[in-house]
Write a structure and sequence with these properties.
Elements (H helix, E strand, L loop, with lengths): L33 H59 L4 H11 L1 E8 L2 E7 L6 E7 L2 E6 H63 L1
Antiparallel strand pairs: 1-2, 3-4
């Protein structure tokens, strides 16, 4: 029996290709090799299925995380744009104190934010006070970031998450192809064994008849 080795080459994440059985006799030279070959194929299928399950879980986590990152980034960009508009307006109306007070009140941001899963609070935010934002980093850790730094960090994090999700989807497709390849290989070896058994049976009958 030819040693069972995965085909040369891997995908971009290093997952090896499955062996492609074009000629069954390349893998089995006698019926004694059939069971070990089929067992080896099944072991490879199990490994690919395990990787497929882990990749599906990782992809599901990213699909949950990406909308949160995107929404946070959009909010940071909104706050930055409101702050820049407020700063610009202040520069244009330095001499009109009464008008400035009225304009400032109109420019305040009225918002509702989440304290807990079912608990929300109202807040009034002055755009001029949004020089920094507080971001949850996970594991009950929150840090303050200058708003420009927060925007850059979130944009980078979003791009990385989207790239990872694309890689997960590509890996899933690749893994399913390898599983299918091995299932076809299993069927070919099994069918070859059936044919060989039939031949041996017929040859045995002929020998008995002679």
């Amino acid at each position: 029996m030819t040693d069972l080795k995965q085909s040369e080459g891997t995908n971009p994440r290093g997952i090896p290709k499955a062996p492609f059985v074009e000629n069954v006799t390349d893998y089995v030279s006698s019926r004694a090799d059939v069971e070990p070959t089929l067992r080896s194929f099944q072991e490879l299928i199990s490994k690919y299925q395990f990787m497929e399950l882990n990749t599906q879980r990782r992809g599901a986590g990213l699909r949950q995380k990406i909308p949160d990152i995107r929404n946070t980034l959009e909010m940071v960009r909104y706050l930055r744009s409101r702050r820049e508009a407020a700063d610009s307006g202040a520069d244009n109306h330095d001499d009109d104190d009464d008008d400035d007070d009225a304009d400032q009140e109109k420019k305040l941001i009225q918002t509702t934010f989440e304290l807990n899963d079912t608990l929300y609070a109202h807040a009034t935010v002055d755009p001029k006070d949004t020089n920094e934002v507080y971001l949850w980093l996970g594991a009950n850790v929150m840090l303050a970031y200058p708003i420009e730094e927060a925007e850059a960090m979130l944009a980078e994090k979003l791009a990385a998450a989207e790239k990872s999700l694309a890689a997960c989807e590509e890996d899933l497709e690749f893994l399913r192809e390898q599983i299918t390849t091995l299932e076809v290989a299993t069927a070919r070896v099994y069918n070859w064994d059936v044919v060989q058994r039939r031949k041996e049976k017929e040859e045995g009958k002929e020998a008995d008849g002679s």
